[in-house]
Amino acid sequence: MNTATKTISSRPQARGNGSTALPAGTPAPDFALKSTPDQTVKLNEFRGRPVVLAFYPADWSPVCGDQMGLYNEMLSEFQEFGAELLGISVDGAWCHAAFCRDRKLHFPLLADFEPKGEVARLYGVYRPSDGTSERALFVINADGIIHWSYVSPVGVNPGAAGILSALEELQGKGEGE
Amino acid sequence: MKRDASASVPESALPMPDRDHIQGPIDAPLVLLEYGDYECPYCGQAYPIVKAIQERLGDRLCFAFRNFPLVNSHPHAQHAAEAAEAAGAQGHFWEMHDLLYENQDALEDEDLAEYASIIGLDAERLIKELQAGTYTARVRQDFRSGARLDVNGTPSFFINGVRYDGGRGIEGLLSALTAEPVK
Q1: Helices (H), chain A
Q2: What is the DSSP letter of A145?
Q3: What digits encode the pLDDT tens for the residues B29-69?
Q4: CA-to-CA distance for A33 and A45, rounded, in angstroms?
Q5: From CA B4, how far away is CA A49, in angstroms rounded?
Q6: Best CA proximity match to A42, nearest among B103, A150, A34, B104
Q7: Which residues pair with B23 in a beta bridge?
């Protein structure tokens, strides 16, 4: 991939050893998941702009809260790239609704709830031992192709530097075309 | 689509003397940079620890502070950060920084004005600058720089430009600082 031509020291490298996460260059599997008890979000609705897909293990656990809370603060940064942020975990839509309200989150959390973890499995980031997803990030380009993916140790908030670098690369490509 | 003001966002976790707020000699062998939020209780806990470390290391330490307000969790954090910047514009950043951390439960605008008066600043000017958002962009630059450096919560510390992920107690920070080879 030509994405490797640009190196930024603070950026985590895509795919840890042994990761099964779908790598850059793979078409992002489409999905339709509930974001609230009566609303469904489809990935292909966002075709034409970048999507940040942030898998996390669970609502309410402290690290997750920090990670989603951090991304919540960075929405304006993501929006400057025209990017849509989607959080996704195996929690149900009612749980997400309560979590969003409590943390004042301003982006959708998707319920990968039934069949449990199906979308996480499609992206290669399900943890059968825990029954949750990995803490995994995917930046998907406007054509629905995965541009960058990263799996963080499950207890570590991965921050946003990798996402921002990936979005910047996509923007650079768009300008050069 | 160009990102505005990106040129002025620091890309390094080393203090930049022309923009950052710094205590101690800029060429000190040990450099501690904090990304903090004035309404964050963990930052409040770190505040006396940083003070103690500064006292202990004296001129061997350069300490710098950048803003990382988490405004959804902490509704007063943005104005508090801007008040410190406004005080900085009047030459008294650190006095305001200290007062804010010492009074984390009183960060309404009228409290900020009172702190300005205590320090001997022009409180009216400070409030006007808060209302006008004079330092909003500056605080956002700090925040953006933190996002680039993978700051994932507050407080986040960098020692000689390298992220510190150890404990937040004085022992952890101090031993990480003094374990660094003295340049």
Answers
A1: 62-73, 75-80, 93-103, 118-122, 161-176
A2: B
A3: 999 999 999 999 999 999 999 999 999 999 999 999 999 99
A4: 12
A5: 20
A6: A34
A7: B63
Any idea how long chain B is? 183
Tokens 């920090």 label which residue?
Answer: A66
Q: Provide the token pair at A53.
A: 């897909």
- Measure the CA–CA gap between B115 and B83, rounded to whole angstroms: 9
> In the annotation, is A64 catalytic?
yes
| Alpha helix ranges (H) inside B58-153 | 77-89, 93-102, 109-119, 123-132, 136-148
Tokens coding A122? 């499609």
**What amino acid occupies position A20?**
T
pLDDT digits (tens, 9 = 90+) for A79-135: 999 999 999 999 999 999 999 999 899 999 999 999 999 999 999 999 999 999 999
Residue B47: both structure tokens together: 């505040």
| Residue in B1, B3, B151 nearest the CB of A159 | B151
- Interface test with chain B among A10, A72, A73, by most B beta carbons within 10 Å: A73
CA distance B174 to A97: 42
Tally the residues of chain A. Answer: 177
Cβ(A87)–Cβ(A111) below 8 Å: no
Kindly list the structural domains of chain A, giving each domain's residue range(s) and its CATH number in brackets, ordered by start.
Answer: 17-176 (3.40.30.10)
> For chain B, how big is the Rg over CA atoms in Å?
16
Largest CA distance in chain B: 48
Spatial contact of A107 and A71, defined as CB atoms under 8 Å apart: yes
Q: What are A's interface residues with B at a Cβ cutoff of 8 A?
A: 10, 12, 66-67, 69-70, 72-74, 77, 80-82, 103-106, 157-162, 164, 171
Token code pair at residue A113: 């709830």
DSSP state of B81: H
